[in-house]
Amino acid sequence: MAEWYSMGSFARDMHVLLVHDIATMRDPNADGKSWPPAGWDVPYRRAPYPPTWVRMQGRGRVFYTAMGHGEETWRDRPFQQMLVGALRWATGRRDADVTPNFYRVTPHATELPPVSGPVAGLPKKVQAAPPAVPLTTLPR
To answer: Rg of the chain's alpha carbons, rounded to an integer?
Structure first.
């Protein structure tokens, strides 16, 4: 199963290649009774957003994807084809219409879901690690 990242800050001049529609996601382990616990989806309620996009940066070409966390994704033929096409475009070997379409394709992507407290039955959120000590302050 893929792991997805939920982004909230986007360049408005991007050309969206893929849209992540959270409303269609389902937990294959859900039985509707004991799992998932009530309130589990509060932090995930959001409008569709782009996990994969391209854009121009001056004369440079930018490709981004949040996909590829799990090994199974890298074995997926459509994912591989997308990467090859993106690399060809980014290196100038292929041209494509990358007219910005962010507002048309994902008009509410910047509206983030509500923040939830702990949900019974789910692991507690991991506390952030303390900041690293800068090397300049370490004793010699």
So the answer is: 19
- Among residues 95, 92, 112, 96, which one has the least CA distance to residue 48? 112
Q: What is the DSSP letter of 28?
A: T
Q: pLDDT averaged over the chain?
A: 80
Of 8, 1, 14, nearest in space to 99 by CA: 14
Taking the C-alpha atoms of residue 54 and residue 1, their distance in angstroms, rounded to an integer, is 25
Query: Which run of H or of E encompasses 63?
Result: strand 60-65
**Full-prediction pTM beyond 0.85?**
no
Nearest to 22 by CA among 122, 128, 129, 113: 113
Who wins on pLDDT, 47 or 101? Answer: 101
SS3 category, 4: coil
Identify the residue whose tokens are 């408005």. 12
Closest to 56 (Cα-Cα) out of 104, 101, 12, 14: 14
Q: What is the C-alpha separation between 13 and 61, in angstroms, rounded?
A: 12
CA gap 51, 20 in Å, rounded:
6
SS3 140: coil
Residue 84: both structure tokens together = 């090859």
Other C-beta atoms closer than 10 Å to the C-beta of 116 total 15
